[in-house]
Structures are given as structure tokens and as C-alpha cells.
Design the sequence.
């Protein structure tokens, strides 16, 4: 088996849950080898010094072991390969805690970053980048000392003291402090076969921060336990065959044209409780043309699964498995042309509440979207595919939910059926009738409904609670099928 085929097998085995939660690089073992002639960098050596001493286009081999606190700004076209068990760690080890009453305290801890982003009410400290770990378990930061409990820590910023309720004893205590592993404006950088963890990435920035570069390739990496985003992408970034999980805010974020996100497992992100409506979950791209989300397994994120928001154009979501995300599975918002096809979506939106949000597929304030040949399994109480218009206005530009076509999808409901197009503007608004009069359509879709399901919740414009016959009288699903099971 060659290296490429080995990576493909490992990626799909991870996606299907056939391998434990380890990196693809680790799972391959001997299959991961640095290219011949690569400049070797051992743990403890400075990666940045090696970069500075080399020319653009140089190739580096990060040797097995932990490379701690090594933020690196590459030169153009430089390539970084892990030997197979190389770990980039953005934390420093803390020692010397002393008992103070019922707590353990470490002084001399000066915070060097500021809080950013928007948090859920239940997680007011989410935006502080520094994160504490005990034996690889992240602790929750609290805002007051009297809120301390096992699994929590408090940072007295005035006294420069860290407080724990847990006895650190002989355990390993680490504080994430480095803002990134790789960042900068260089072009055509390659990062492959490494594990990256415990970086204090600020909100909307990644431990791998390619947002200011062009043409970065990030492949076959595991990216976990970072404070905000695992990876932030920019123009022509490719992220493929990676396992991106348990990051504080989101798995992948960024903006730029030509972004490709392929063959990744993106799961369990937003561990720190960032606001879902602001930015959190699996992957979110903005201000982009020509984005491709293909063959990713996106699951159990605390927020939407795959999301393009804000003047995205020519986006393709295809061949993805998107399931059990707390908000929408696939979300195309205030944007333009997209194709959503051949995806499997299951049980998304169960953490969402209110109106028609949090569905398996949502197209909101967007136009020119084709949604077809997807297979959906919809949880009871949730909706399948929804077009939503709120009269969104951005600096005088009114977005319209129009010219969207939904066809040839196969939908299984576990409760009452819910799908269609919803409007949330008042009479007299320019968009008041955009759902029904804006060339939106549903046809040739199959709806599989339990015989014991409650009242239908089909909706079209301002008409809600339509049954199958009323939906067809509105001109929808003239060739669709309703199947009871």
C-alpha cells in the first residue's frame, strides 16, 4: 500500500468510526515518512530558526516527539512534514502550585491576550484564549473565584494568580499560550502529517492560520484542543484528509476564493460555548467565490455543520455526511449561487429552538441555490429543507430568497413532516411575497412519514401548517410523493 492509498483508507475508516480517535498520521505509522532530503528539526530545536536559515521552497521534517511552543511563520513554498508521531503543542507546563485554603494557587501568571468573540450566557469566559489542561482534559474558566469547582479554574488577572479546585499533585498541568502553530502571509505553504494541539488561538483564528496567505495545503493532520478555531483558511487554501475536533470555537473558519475542504472528519467543536448565531460549530466560510465542501464527515458540533455566510458565490456542498450537529446541518446564508447535492444529513438541529431555524438544510436570504439528490433523516420536531427570508439588509443592500430549486431529495421524517419556505417580514415590505413569487420551487421530492405522525407543518411564505394537499395547491410538489411507513 502506498502513502496516498494508506491515507485514503485511514480517512474513511475514521469517518465510519472504525478507528479510535487518533490522527491519520498516527494511524498510518510507518506509512508516514518525510521526503528525502528534508531538513530535520528535532523536538527542542527552533522551527523558526530552521525556516529563517532556509530558502523559500525548502522542505522540513518535524521529527517524532513534542515540539512545544514553536509558533512559526514560513517563507513562500516551504513544506512541513511530520515524521509520523510529531506533535506541535502550544502550551507551557505549569509547576509549583501551593495550597491556599481549599484551592491550589500558582502566582506570577500574567495574561497576555484579551477576550474576543461572543459567548453563550452559560459560558461567559469562552473568549479568553488561554486554556488550562490537566492530564489532557481542558478545564472551564470561570469569572469569579467562588464559582470554582472540580474541572474549573479561575484567573485573578490583577493578582496574576491561577486558582484550581483540583489537586494538581503529580498530574500534568498545561496552559495554552501560543497563539498559533503556523501563520503569516507566505504563499503555497504545505503542512502535512502532524498533530497540533493546545494553541491559544484567538476567536476566528486557527492554530493553523492560513487566512493571510495564498494557496496553503493542510493535509493528513489532526487538529484538536485549540482555544478557538482549529484551522483558519484564506484564498486557495486546501484542507484535506484531516481530523479536526474538540476545538474551542469552530473546526474551520476563514474567507477567500477557491477554498477546498475535502475528505475531513470535523467533529465536536465549540467546546467552550461560543454563541452559535455568531460563529461556532463545524466549518464556516465567508466572502468567498468557488468554495468546495466535499466528502467530509461533519458531526456532533455545537453549532451548524457546514456554513457559508456573507456573499458566498459558486459554492458546492457534495458527498458529505452531516449529522447530529446542534444547529443546521448545511447552512447557506445571505449569499448567492450554490449546489447542495448527494449529501447524507441526519438528526441535525436538535440543539436549536424557535421558529424554523436549526434544520438539516437551510437557505436563508440567498438566491440561485440548487438542492437535489440528498438523503435526509429528520428528527421529530425538526424541519428538513427550509428557504427563509427575513428581509436581510446589509448597508442598503437587500438580500432576496429567490430562484432556489429543491428537487429529487429523499426525506425520512421521524415525526411530523416539516419543509418549505418561510417569510418573516411585515406586509408592505419589498420581500413580503418573495418566497411564493420569487421563482422558488419544490418538486419530485420523496417524503417518508410515520403513520402516527402529527399534523403536517409544511409552510410556504406566510402560510404555515399546510397539509400535503394544500402544499400542492400552492404549486409545490406536483410530481412529489408522500409515503407513509
Sequence:
Amino acid at each position: 500500500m502506498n502513502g496516498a492509498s494508506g491515507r485514503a483508507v485511514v480517512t474513511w475508516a475514521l469517518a465510519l468510526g472504525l478507528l479510535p480517535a487518533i490522527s491519520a498520521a498516527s494511524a498510518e505509522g510507518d506509512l508516514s515518512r518525510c521526503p528525502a532530503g528534508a531538513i530535520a528539526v528535532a523536538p527542542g530545536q527552533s522551527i523558526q530558526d530552521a525556516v529563517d536559515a532556509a530558502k523559500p521552497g525548502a522542505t522540513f521534517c518535524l521529527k517524532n516527539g513534542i515540539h512545544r511552543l514553536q509558533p512559526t511563520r514560513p517563507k513562500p513554498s516551504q513544506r512541513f512534514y511530520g515524521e509520523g508521531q510529531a506533535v506541535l503543542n502550544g502550551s507551557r507546563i505549569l509547576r509549583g502550585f501551593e495550597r491556599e485554603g481549599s484551592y491550589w494557587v500558582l502566582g506570577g501568571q500574567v495574561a497576555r491576550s484579551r477576550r474576543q468573540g461572543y459567548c453563550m450566557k452559560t459560558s461567559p469566559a469562552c473568549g479568553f484564549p488561554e486554556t488550562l489542561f490537566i492530564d489532557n482534559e481542558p478545564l472551564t474558566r470561570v469569572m469569579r473565584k467562588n464559582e470554582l469547582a472540580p474541572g474549573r479554574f479561575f484567573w485573578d488577572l490583577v493578582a496574576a494568580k491561577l486558582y484550581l479546585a483540583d489537586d494538581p499533585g503529580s498530574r500534568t498541568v498545561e496552559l495554552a499560550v501560543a497563539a498559533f502553530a503556523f501563520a503569516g502571509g507566505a504563499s503555497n505553504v504545505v503542512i502535512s502529517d502532524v498533530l497540533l494541539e493546545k494553541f491559544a488561538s484567538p476567536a476566528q483564528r486557527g492554530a493553523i492560520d492560513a487566512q493571510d496567505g495564498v494557496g496553503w495545503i493542510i493535509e493528513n493532520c489532526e487538529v484538536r484542543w485549540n482555544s478557538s478555531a482549529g484551522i483558519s483558511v484564506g484564498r486557495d487554501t486546501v484542507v484535506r484528509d484531516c481530523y479536526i475536533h474538540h476545538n474551542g470555537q469552530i473546526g474551520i473558519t476563514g474567507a477567500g476564493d477557491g477554498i477546498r475542504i475535502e475528505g475531513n472528519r470535523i467533529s465536536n467543536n465549540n467546546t467552550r460555548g461560543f454563541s452559535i448565531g455568531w460563529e461556532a460549530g463545524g466549518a464556516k466560510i465567508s466572502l468567498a467565490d468557488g468554495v468546495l465542501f466535499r466528502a467530509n464527515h461533519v458531526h456532533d458540533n455545537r453549532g451548524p455543520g457546514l456554513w457559508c455566510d456573507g456573499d458566498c458565490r459558486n459554492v458546492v456542498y457534495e458527498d458529505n455526511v452531516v449529522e447530529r450537529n446542534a444547529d443546521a446541518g448545511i447552512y447557506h446564508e445571505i449569499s448567492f449561487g450554490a449546489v447542495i447535492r448527494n449529501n447524507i444529513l441526519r438528526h441535525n438541529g436538535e440543539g436549536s429552538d424557535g421558529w424554523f431555524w436549526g434544520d438539516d438544510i437551510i437557505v436563508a436570504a440567498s438566491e440561485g441555490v440548487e438542492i437535489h439528490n440528498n438523503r435526509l433523516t429528520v428528527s421529530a420536531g425538526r424541519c428538513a429543507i427550509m428557504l427563509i427570508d427575513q428581509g436581510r439588509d446589509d448597508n442598503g443592500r437587500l438580500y432576496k430568497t429567490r430562484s432556489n430549486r429543491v428537487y429529487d431529495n429523499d426525506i425520512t421524517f421521524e415525526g411530523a413532516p416539516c419543509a418549505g419556505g418561510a417569510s418573516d417580514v411585515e406586509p408592505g415590505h419589498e420581500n413580503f411575497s418573495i418566497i411564493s413569487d420569487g421563482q422558488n420551487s419544490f418538486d419530485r421530492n420523496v417524503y417518508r412519514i410515520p403513520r402516527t405522525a402529527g399534523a403536517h407543518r409544511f409552510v410556504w411564505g406566510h402560510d404555515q401548517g399546510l397539509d400535503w394537499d394544500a402544499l400542492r395547491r400552492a404549486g409545490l410538489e406536483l410530481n412529489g410523493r408522500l409515503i407513509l411507513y
